[in-house]
Amino acid sequence: MTMTIPFHYFLTLLFAGALLTSQPSAFADAPLAGTAPAQWRVVWSDDPTTTATIAWSTKSAGRDHSVRFKAKDSDDGDATTLAESGRYTGGSFELYYHHSKLTDLRPGTAYEIQMISDTESSPVFYFVTASDTDREFSILHGGDSRSDRDARRRVNTMISEMAEASFDNDDPADDIIAFAHGGDYVVSGTKMELWSVWMSDHELTTMTDGRLLPIIPARGNHDKGKPFNKVFGFPDGDLNYYGISIGPKVRMVTLNSEISTAGDQATWLNEELSRSRANHRWLLAQYHRPVYPAVKEAGAGLKTWVPLFEKFDVDLVCEADGHNIKRTVPIRDGQLDQTGVVYIGEGGLGVPQRTPKTDRWFIQSPGMADQGHHVFVLTFGKDAMHGKCVLEGGKIRDEFTRQPR
Predict the structure, then answer these.
(1) Residue range(s) in the chain whose domain bears CATH number 2.60.40.380
(2) How is domain 38-128 classified at the CATH fold level?
(3) Residue 8 above 70 pLDDT?
(4) Which neighbouring-strand residues pair with 55?
(5) pTM, two decimal places
(6) Engineered SS bond to 234: which of 19, 163, 229, 403, CB 3.0-4.6 Å?
């Protein structure tokens, strides 16, 4: 299974290892001081054609927090929306969150944003809403960015460079428009000092022209505790499973493997997949604990979610947690079946890697397994979905193609 890679893009990836030694973006590593906005991020957990959550942190509580925004390169006047603010919970570490949910945005539009806390302002950034037209595009997927901070920062820098290079040619299919994270951001999800470091390191995904790559977050087993919802702008008590359409033909369903996979979540998943399958060319799921793992034992979703994935012909499932690389054979009814579901993963955004158990039938050829820091690039075309696993340094370790159902 192969795909054609534009030559310019291939060269960019090939030499990414050399680029990693360059100086970080001017937008990275903002100091936490007073009410100066830092740790900026854009979150997609609702309709990304019209909605985005802008989040940032300050060291001091401050009094007035807002986001100034407007369509980029337009004559529109600036609009301002107030932020929901408060202190992050989690130990004695003092840090304050600010979230502004922008709504009624125009699809496929670049928006300039500036975060304001009291008299302090962030640099001017921008992000781009998802298109409402049936266009081709790419996203990134990965998981497990805890434990090794140096490796995490290198991978984040690679993500920024890959995303920026993806816009260098005229092929819209190459354009990387979002980053889906499969969970395990930090070692202990109750410790805000760890989240603070992760959020600061996430600034490295900012592109040199100030473009922010929206993140689509899933909760991992190390992310237990209240901070997760405040980091990503979910309401208190949110169960952290949701579906978003990234354009009219690509649906990504994010599940939570850290609560019951049965009951309400399974009922919701059945309804979500039934509703989405009929209207989308590509249907994906992401979550943390793998159901066809290359190292660990299968998660509870094997019994509760897999029958639904197969019933509704999910095109691709993205997993994490194992700290390795894997792509399964197509699976249906517990065996290789070309009509089945393919599972990829299992987390390499900086975490130390494990050795996969290659004797497991579902990762033997034409599947694969390996280890190494990596991120997946998923490209959604009208005739095929292409995927590739890119190692730190730019080497393409695996490629695959899925055909529309």
Answers:
(1) 38-128
(2) Immunoglobulin-like (2.60.40)
(3) no
(4) 41, 99
(5) 0.92
(6) 229
